[in-house]
Amino acid sequence: TTFQDGGEEVEDGAVYNVTLKKVQIQQAANKGARWLGGEGDQLPPEHTVRQYETSKIRAIKAGTLEKLVENLLTAFGDADFSYISIFLATYRAFASPRAVLELLLDRFGSLETSSHGEVANLNSLESEMVLRAEIASVLRAWLDQCSEDFREPPDYMCLLKLLDYLKNNMPNSDMESRVQNLLKQFQNQEVEAVDGFCSTSSTGLVDGEELEISNPEEFSSFQDHVVAEQLTYMDVMLFRRVVPYHCLGSIWSQRDKKENKNLAPTIRATITQFNAVTKCVISTILGTRELKIQQRAKIIEKWINIAHECRILKNFSSLRAIISALQSNSIYRLKTTWMFVSKDVLLMYEELSEIFSDHDNYLTSRELLMKEATSKFANLDSSEKENQKKSQKRLQLQKNKGVMQGTVPYLGTFLTDLIMLDTALQDYVEGGLINFEKRRREFEVIAQIKLLQSSCNSYCLIPDQKFIQWFRRQRHLTEEESYKLSREAEAAADTNILSPKSQKSMVKRISTLFLGTDVFTPPKEPPPKSSPVGGSSGESTDSGSVSSCEFNHSETEDVCVTPVSSPEDPLKKVQLRPLHAAGSPKTLAQGSCSDKGSSSKGSLSEAGSGSDSGSTPSRDSGSVPSSACRALPVYNRQSDGSCIIRVSMDGLQDSVYKSILITNQDRIPDVTQRALLKHNLEPDAVEDYELVQVISEDKELVFPRDANVFYGMNSHVNFDFVLRKK
């Protein structure tokens, strides 16, 4: 079979793409071969005669609503076999169910039209039968694929209109009884909750129950695979109920309007469940203040293991929810706690995080979803060697059960694709015709969602009411609460770690870590792109030094290696000091960390060691060579072509800032991009922001677009900068 582009055909109110399809319909032996008694399929090509047939395929490219509805009746005759499915999945973007039904029944249902839209003889019974069969075929497909379109409480006008048509034209048919049953079903479910599993309000609880912070012991009693299975069960129930047209960009993008608060309820339900899982992870880790460091680390390990079980079950929704929670600022900043997470579990976490890397438009997760969409089981061949045996063992247990698995996707990827398509392609083309090529492109995404929904029928999971009740009882922490608890937990961890017995060893560990020795490998792909131990984003590589500690008021109680001055040798000893209460200059000054008015003496450094010196501090004595320390960049002083500035976001409190190391090579775009990364904003939005230095309360220095920040800044005032949207 070969295809050839046949160009376009233009009719009144419609434009069609034409494709010529050439198909071989017969192969026979030629005259000489027949004389020898040969058969056509056993002879070489030169001894055979082939016959071909060329057919024309017409696919509507653009048209008026009337033409698009008429094409529902003629699509099969034009060999456009997927048209009905595409139309039914996407028409809500440009028409209502009532408008389509009225055109189909009133306009075409009352005319005697042949299968190709030509007016037939009024006395032609055959034409009437063909038309009736075509309309019945469209209605049957509509009820099969999009029965939710007819859910219009309390009147159900479209369903009643359809029922009236069937009584007059197809009395006592199977379709008539089907529509009657559907009407009764809708009337009995006028108020239908999309799903109750993800409810975290008191209305979703049994009488007498109250929301509560998770009990660590109760959470630990649930086995990892049980938690993963129950999260998958809830996700499957919600994903199977997703109405595909709710995902269309033109519909989902309107959700924030006040009049659309009830728009796309099936999508909102999946998002609510996703957020509930994320908040559950955070509350179990931070909700109990009395937890020891090791206990909190064990809970983090448990959630990573649960995420791995979700991966085995091919539940990418809860998997991403757990990873997102662990990468949230309040969890990721628990530097000391992360140090107690075992190496094998960290490797597993890194691999799971790689799945959702934003590199190349989330290419890894897209390829994985395509690969496993309809496969029976997860493909774990790429697992780290340390976790390979465990993964294969769990996967083998799943296979031994003899039950195939479906795939639950992260729905946000599809929503993003559909919004991008809606933004990039026009709704109407020249002449005011509806751009149906856009709908074909959208259907490519919708079809993937439908395929995955179908695969979810393969799951065989039984709800565990004990876990579901526990999950629904969880009180979720607000961002402010979780951040406050995170600071308290890290402060308590620092206090425990800095006991007299452990102080010497911790000085060695952290100083070695900051100076570049591979003592601890933090998880990859954090949202702020910072290590859970060091907290810096590594921008100091421009100057050849290793960043050690991000000093900012929003992340206090960090443990930093601080040069402490003494009368004998101001830069001889290294001492471990915690930062104290945020936003208090007085407290910070007492802690020997530099504030706005501090001098170089006793100032907090942000880089680990100058690469120029080539020297390394002694791990036993904790001393730092004076030549290395003098090269360290500091806040409020330019030294050796580098310095540290503080950048806050316009509109936020001044005390919430990020410390950034700059060199004499850095220009405005470079510094702006680093500042955006530090503040967890999109680094690609550099052109949308301007960087200004605060000179005084009523004065500021605005930098040109490509200015050199190091040489252009005012070095006689505090190195305080503001990132402001243009």
TrEMBL record:
Q: Where is the Ras-GEF domain?
A: 223-492
What are the GO BP annotations of this UniProt entry?
A: Ras protein signal transduction
Give the GO molecular function terms.
Answer: guanyl-nucleotide exchange factor activity
Region named Disordered: 518-550, 558-577, 582-628
Q: Where is the composition biased (Low complexity)?
A: 531-548, 591-610
- InterPro entries in the record: RA_dom (IPR000159), Ras-like_GEF (IPR008937), Ras-like_Gua-exchang_fac_N (IPR000651), Ras_G-nucl-exch_fac_CS (IPR019804), Ras_GEF_dom_sf (IPR023578), RASGEF_cat_dom (IPR001895), RASGEF_cat_dom_sf (IPR036964), Ubiquitin-like_domsf (IPR029071)
The transmembrane residues are: none
Ras-associating domain span: 641-726
**Where does the record place Polar residues bias?**
612-626
Asked if the record carries the keyword Ion transport, the reply is: no
The UniProt keyword set, sorted, is: Guanine-nucleotide releasing factor
What the entry lists under Pfam families is as follows: RA (PF00788), RasGEF (PF00617), RasGEF_N (PF00618)
Where is each N-terminal Ras-GEF domain found? Answer: 56-187
A Gene Ontology term for the protein's cellular component: plasma membrane
Asked whether the UniProt record includes Cell inner membrane among its keywords, one would answer no
Q: Quote the protein name from its UniProt record.
A: RGL1 protein
- Show the taxonomic lineage: Eukaryota, Metazoa, Chordata, Craniata, Vertebrata
